[in-house]
Every structure is written in C-alpha cells, then in structure tokens.
From TrEMBL:
PANTHER family: RNA POLYMERASE ECF-TYPE SIGMA FACTO, RNA POLYMERASE SIGMA FACTOR HI_1459-RELATED. It holds the Pfam family Sigma70_r2. Residues 128-174 form the RNA polymerase sigma factor 70 region 4 type domain. This is Sigma-70 family RNA polymerase sigma factor. Belongs to the sigma-70 factor family. ECF subfamily. Residues 193-227 form the Putative zinc-finger domain. Coiled coil: none annotated. Residues 29-97 form the RNA polymerase sigma-70 region domain. Keywords: DNA-binding, Sigma factor, Transcription, Transcription regulation.
Amino acid sequence: MTIPGRATDTDTELLSAVRAGDTAAYGTLYERHHAAARHLAYGLTRDPADADDLVAETFAKVFAALRAGRGPLVAFRAYLATTMRHVCYHRARRDRRLEFTDDLTRYDEGQPYTDPALDRLERAYAAAAFRQLPERWRDVLWQTAVEGNSPAEVAGMLGMTPNAVAVLAHRAREGLRSLYLQQHVGVVKHPECRWAGDRLGVHLRGRLAPRDSNRMRLHLGWCAECRGRVAEIAEVSDMHPPYRQRHHAGSGG
C-alpha cells in the first residue's frame, strides 16, 4: 500500500493525496519542486527577498487551489511555473499602483513610468510567443517589425515578392499578438473554460472562426471567470505591445 506523501510517490499521486486532505503530501511536492521554483523566481525578479516572497505566494496559491478541488491533476511543475508568472505579473501591477514616493515628476503627463519587473515579465511572454510562430513567420516578422526593413528589402532576402512579404508579415503580426496575449491566460480546470482559455488571445483579436466565435460568446455569457480573463488580457493588449520596432538611423525615429 502506497503511503501518500512518501518520496517515492509520483506527483500525480501526491496531488490526489493533497485533494484528499493530506497536507504532508504537499510538503513533499514543495521539497521536490522548491529549487526549480526559486530558479524561476530569480529569473523574474533580481531581489532575493522578492524572489522568496514570490515562491511562497505561488506555493500558497497552488495549495489553496488544490484544497478547493481545483488546480492540476498532472504536470505540477508546469502548473506551478504558470502560477508564478501570473503572481509576478499581478504583484508588479499592484506595486506600481500602490507605490509611495515624494517624487511625482515621473507621473507627469508625457513621462510614462515603466515597472522593471513587469517589463521583464512582458518580454518573457513576448519571447515565448515569438518562439511558437512558424519559422517563416519569425523570419519575416523579425526583418519587418524588428529590423524595420521594407517588404521590398525583405523580398530580396527571402526570395519572395514584396506583396507576399506584406501578406505574410500581417499574418505573423496577428499570430504573434494572439500568442502573446495567450501567455497571460492561466490554467483552468473546467473543460469548457480550458477550451475558451486556449482561444482567448485569438478571440480578443477578432480572429475566431464563426462557429468558435458563437461558442465563445455563449460561454462568456455565463462564465464570469472567463469574462474576467478577457478583461485582463484586454488591458494587457492596450498596455504592452509584444515587440518594439527598430528604426533605421536615417528615419528620424
């Protein structure tokens, strides 16, 4: 008979034990994944105290989710990493809104303030989205959106017509934008919410097929949690572009 929480148990067995009320099993998960969590935390924030707080809050949130019957059934570490990224994102937004300072000059109109932690996280999301694009899309997007080359210039590099480059660049930008927004959607348990969550980025960009769009509309009509997720990534869409275009030296930019 397997004793829940024993070091030889699989993560899946330990997760089941936690849901059944065995807190020792979660202690085993904590010991097993704590080092990996700290490594990720140090990639999201450079302050050791902030990293420790981030790890503690993430494990606490996952534990609360499991005790409430939610959270992962398998792939605990992947779920933990996703949760940590979202905790970091929300902490950065909260801290930016609640910051106390005597220096109000940076809040004057025309001098926007960029939170370094939030900016690092957004860059990580953008990089993850970029890696998911097809290779051809990445090539065209890099040359047009990042390097600032014209379709005619890129056409010569890639053996395409300028019109084909322009069309492909448009598709790549839309694909990147959808995938970037998708990085901000957390893991959910309900099957219909998982279906919706996998498509929220595309939905927000207005790119869903008519049949899927109707299904999404019906789902959002009754699911307040997914409506909240849509509102959250809509805010992200307004605040953070997934890339910054470079300008040629002679363009005056």
